[in-house]
Structure formats: C-alpha cells, structure tokens
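re: that chain from earlier
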Amino acid sequence: EGADQEVIGVDRALGQAIADRLSEELGVDVEMQIENTTFTANLAAIAADQADIMIAGMSPTDERRENMDFSDVYLQAEQRLMIRAEDADKFTELSDFAGATTAAQINTTQATIAHEVLTESTVTEMERIPTAVLGLPTGHADAVVIESTVAQPYLLANPDLVLSEASLPEDVLYKDTAIAVPLGNEDFLEIIHEVIAECQEQGLIDQWVEEYRSICVAQNQL
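^ sequence. v structure.
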C-alpha cells in the first residue's frame, strides 16, 4: 500500500488491466474490487469459488492446482533471507541459521522453504508479512524468508534491516508468480492469459516493477 493506504504494485496494475479487458469484452464497466484479507483467507475464498481472482504473489504449486486453476506465469521473484543489519556478518551461509528463529507468512512457498531448507532453525509462521518483518527489530525473529520485490519497501523504510548474503538452494531460489481463479473458469482464464501475454510483450510488467520501486524510494525520502 502507498502512504495514503492506496493499494499499489504490479499485482494491482495487472488486475486493473484484466478489469479493463473484461470491460471491452463484455461491453459493460467492470470495476476491480480489492479485498484486503490474509493470504490464507484468499486461498480459501478461491478454492470455495467465493472470489473471482487472486493476484497476490501466488506460486502455482501442484498442491494448489488441486483446488484452483492458474494463469501463465507473469513474474519470477528471487527468494531471500532478510535479517538485522547488525547480524550481516553473523548470517552469511545457510548453516549459520542453525539455532536461529526464522519467520515466514503462513501457507506460502516461503514458509515451505523455511521448513524444508532451514531444518535446524525454529520456524514461526505469521498471517501477514508485516508482522513477520516486525519480528526482526523486536527480537522475535532472526530472519524472514521473503521475496526480493516484497522486501524492497521494508528495506527502504528500515535501514537496520538487510538481505543476508546467504543464498537459498537453486531449486527454490526463484519463484514463479501466477494468478489463481476458481476451478472451471476456462473462458475467464483465457482472457487472463491474453492480458498477461500482451503486458509482457509491451514491457509493462517490468515497467510496473520499476514504478513500484520508485514509489517506495520516494515515500521513504519524504
């Protein structure tokens, strides 16, 4: 969210592009309505066909495909470990996290990574990313598994936080991001595929990433 609590970022921009295309296809004004809920609630809503679309940094895992359909991948994010700046020299290898407490958002690929890779670390799962990140300055966590793009505003706002030099294994280092919809919505999914392809061809995805980063920098320079 921006300083005025308006939702910003790649997901919001892509969602608006899809709403615009639906307006053209249907000949009516399709308005995007954003629900600010937890990731867990979002997953449940899509699985139960109580929401039309989920654009929230979703990874199209095999387990999730059993309960929902996914679009083509529109973004690939790097998975990183966020730590306190004062601990930068302490956590330089994955083995350094043995005995540490690692936080991640519940029901996410980051939580899975924390459990499967940092096996000697105590893993704490939080409903929201801000709560997980807050655990670093308060001492409730030593590290947070987080996407690099998601980490940017937190790093800009908190100079006492940095990304660890420790690199996650190659097979989990990068995460595909796609859009989720309830099962059986092939026509809707086809429109989403088309919008994603056009946005990628026009360079809009990269443009939105840069705009989001610029907004985060500007807000933290005020």
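The first strand starts at residue 54 and ends at 58.
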